[in-house]
Amino acid sequence: MSHTTRAVVLGAGMAGMLAATALARHVDAVTVLDRDRLPDGADPRRGVPQARHTHVLWSGGARVIETLLPGTTDRLLDAGAHRVGLPEDLVSLTAYGWQQRFPETQFMIAASRSLLDWTVRDQASRDPKVTVLGDMDILGLRGDARAVTGVTCKPRREGTLSVIEADVVVDATGRGSPMKRWLTGLGLPPVQEDVIDSGMAYATRIFRAPEGARKKFPLVSVYADHRAGVPGRNGILLPIEDGRWMVTLSGTRGGEPPTTEEGFADYLRTLRHPLIADLIDRAEPLTGVQASRSTANRRLFYDRLVEWPDGLVVLGDAVAAFNPVYGHGMSAAALSAATLDATLRGSGLRPGTARAAQRAIGAVVDTPWSLGTSQDICYPDVFARTDDPRLTRHADDRRRQADVIGAAALGDPLVCAAALQVNTLSGAADALQDPEVQQALSRAGELGLPDGPTLTDEERDAARTVVNAAS
Ligand SMILES: Cc1cc2nc3c(=O)[nH]c(=O)nc-3n(C[C@H](O)[C@H](O)[C@H](O)COP(=O)(O)OP(=O)(O)OC[C@H]3O[C@@H](n4cnc5c(N)ncnc54)[C@H](O)[C@@H]3O)c2cc1C
């Protein structure tokens, strides 16, 4: 008689729930364990403190989530999330100038992280094969260096230690994952860990949008010029559900945003343009300032270990966490879950599959890793531990190329579409090598660019409407 196949997923965040969905296509039962008591709605929780800050979900990630969990996008939009067409609904001062608002080629979903998380968790939990257990402490792995066979866990409040046997264990416990320690405990050699840390700090405040701007408003961003040789200072105004604006400041080492309300407003006026400061002058603050510093790019090269235990896969922030300013974490997690699905579809539950999946996940996270780190490495006082030639000997060449593309994308629709395809994790990085794109790059010097914010007259009027706290 064949045995019931089981997977255990550690962590019920974005990566964990998407991995559970992928696994449910290949095993009889999936148990997801999280140490948080999980709310029955879009509420904040302890295990995802970053939810207090701006989270954009790029089209590359949104499309994959839709493939894994059909109907998720509509549920998000029905709950008030905004669909931001790119670059059409974007008012952005990039390092190179103001972006022209060409017709949409990509998009992003703008919502609070709590709404994104809850919607995905609820969608995934509807699969009868998936059971989610909150309030669980995970104490360690079962098995040895050749194969992981389950986990030991214990309810946080009351209950006894138990063992869950599994054919596959997936670690999706985020930045704080204990996996590298657990693996050396099983007898594996230490894993290579690269870190590029610009010292970026985040500060976020939520506002009620002026009345006319509650249903639809562009995403507004003012970015630092990473070439300036000074600490980077950025601001983003993200329209989210319930007619709110989430405003996040971020600054690299030496340019960190303050965490007081007065300091928040003053810092906005030190950005390369005061547009966001002007916009929120008429918006009603709904929260104080929330701060975070968990922003270092950190990658664990599990895919490079010579030996890898069967039955173990690591994904999400547990394998690669990115500077959030580039907005890649959730999309990379979604793509990794889809990769796990594809590997299981190709190879089935057999020896070597977990290793193949881990290697494929290593390839998936490489694009967002290289996009963010090659910019972060430019900032003063960055901490870098890496032997990646793209960030060491070839760093200057790559930076020059990125600067040419970034400048051309502002005014050339073809280059803009190719750059967005790459940056939204919607396609291969070689979109930029397309001969037509290359030809467009050579014409980039002839482009006329906007010399100020690209808000339309209607958007300016909408932002000027009187605050009506009652509605
Ligand atoms: C300030 C900030 C802003 C960000 N902005 C963006 C953005 O705009 N766009 C974007 O795509 N990404 C953004 N990110 C990154 C994004 O938050 C992560 O990439 C994403 O949350 C990764 O999902 P995950 O499931 O791997 O980890 P998490 O979301 O961190 O989830 C980990 C889960 O594991 C649980 N857990 C942890 N340890 C244990 C344990 N020992 N036992 C049991 N359960 C455990 C936690 O409770 C949690 O539920 C941002 C990150 C930060 C810090």
Notes on the protein architecture:
By secondary structure, the protein is α+β, with helices and mostly antiparallel strands. It has two domains: 6-55 and 112-192 and 295-373, FAD/NAD(P)-binding domain (3-Layer(bba) Sandwich); 87-103 and 201-292 and 393-471. Helix content is 31%, strand content 23%. It has 13 helices and 23 strands. Strands 5, 6, 14, 15, 16, 17, 18 and 19 form an eight-stranded mixed β-sheet that branches. It has a five-stranded parallel β-sheet with strand order 8-2-1-12-21. Helix 10 packs across helix 11.
Short key terms for the protein model shown above:
2 domains, FAD/NAD-bd_sf, FAD/NAD(P)-binding domain, 13 helices, five-stranded parallel sheet, alpha+beta, 471 residues, binds flavin-adenine dinucleotide
Task: Give a summary of the structure in a few sentences.
The chain is of the alpha+beta class and 471 residues long. The protein has helices at 14-24, 59-68, 72-78, 113-125, 179-185, 261-268, 275-280, 329-347, 353-376, 395-409, 413-423, 435-442, 457-464; strands at 6-10, 29-33, 56-58, 82-86, 90-94, 97-98, 106-110, 130-133, 136-143, 148-155, 162-165, 168-171, 193-197, 201-208, 219-222, 233-240, 244-251, 284-285, 290-292, 297-300, 312-314, 320-321, 383-385. The chain contains 13 helices and 23 strands.
